[in-house]
Amino acid sequence: MAKRQDKDPGEAALNERIKTLERELAALKRDCGKETAQAPLPAASFLSETFRNSPMVMLLIDPETGALVDANRAAEAFYGYSHEQLTSMKITQINTLTPEQVKKEMARAIARNENIFHFRHRLASGEDRAVIVTSGPVFHEERRLLFSIVHDTTPGKRAENKIRQSEERFKGLFESSPLPFWEFDMSSVVAYAQQMRESAGADSVASVLTDNPDATLEMLRRVKVAAVNLA
To answer: Which of 144, 176, 205, 227: CA 20 to 30 A from 32?
Structure first.
């Protein structure tokens, strides 16, 4: 992904408005002397709470250094480290690949050449777990980071139950969110992109799309809306 140059004025105004709302909410809490759980939260606060409390293991990683910038409660429970410990670590202390291999995989995720990875992650107990990591670039506080969701693929009924429970909790979060959420079925897009890449003998889908804008439109046409929430 090309490095962002100038800050969008509209985005700057929105960020400033969110900060203002957060200050107003903090002042309201002080004035009332209690938590205002019924008050609607600003979008940034809601997303922060969603990240923190999601049942899925989530990480924010600095792709330049490999530092774990943030981790949610599910990550703490899964890896067996406290939040303070995780945010003082690097992803190379968890991923069993060599630092050079991890850096290469992060570069692929940043460039969007790949967003699903099969790794082995080491827990605080020393146990290795097979995981599938869905990862992609995001901007957070003017920094380009990698947002990763980690799925434990350890065989056995226990792992299957955990996955099912996570899916049920995520469904509840999806349906009750005050923000509009869309779920897309990308299976047809992925199959089409893979076919294009193999036919062209290219290293990545992005290189094929650069010279074939019609293919981009075809990929968009293949995106299916799987579900939307009430918002």
So the answer is: 176
